[in-house]
Amino acid sequence: MLLPGSALLVVSARKTLNRLQRTHGVPVRSAAREFPGLLAVLDQHAASVRDILDAGVENSSAVPVSVLLAGYARGLLEDLRESGEPRPECAPEWQTADWVHLRLAAVCALAHAD
Does residue 2 lie in a domain region? Predict the structure, then answer.
């Protein structure tokens, strides 16, 4: 059930996820054609994200998936900014990508499937 104001949360979440699709989702899908093992790594990260959101968020079934995914992604991006990464929204070279960027790409895969 959506509460008043929930529509704004969904719109904001979609904006975040669309931006992340441009920086991580599309580039990682392209890289996966060149580096097939990348898909297996992304699948593992996606499964972890699903588990975190299912088990770690109270009443997660009552919250739109896009809102959950965007909130998780925003937390990761904030961690990157606090760590001093100059442009956390930019995707790395995927064959040597770190955990956080792979996790962001997995969020994109889940959002794309939603």
Answer: no
Contact 89, 23 (CB under 8 A): yes
In a domain, 77, yes or no: yes
Q: State the DSSP code for 1.
A: -
Q: What share of the chain is helix, strand, coil (3-state, %, to 5)?
A: 75, 0, 25
pLDDT, position 5: 61
Cα–Cα dist 92/60, whole Å = 31
How many structural domains is the chain composed of?
1
Domain span including residue 93: 13-113
pLDDT digits (tens, 9 = 90+) for 24-62: 999 999 999 999 899 999 999 999 999 999 888 777 778
pTM score, whole prediction: 0.87
Strand ranges (E), 19-96: none
Q: How far apart are CA 74 and CA 52, in angstroms?
A: 15
d(CA 29, CA 58): 31
Q: Among 44, 45, 27, 5, which Cα is nearest to 95's? A: 27
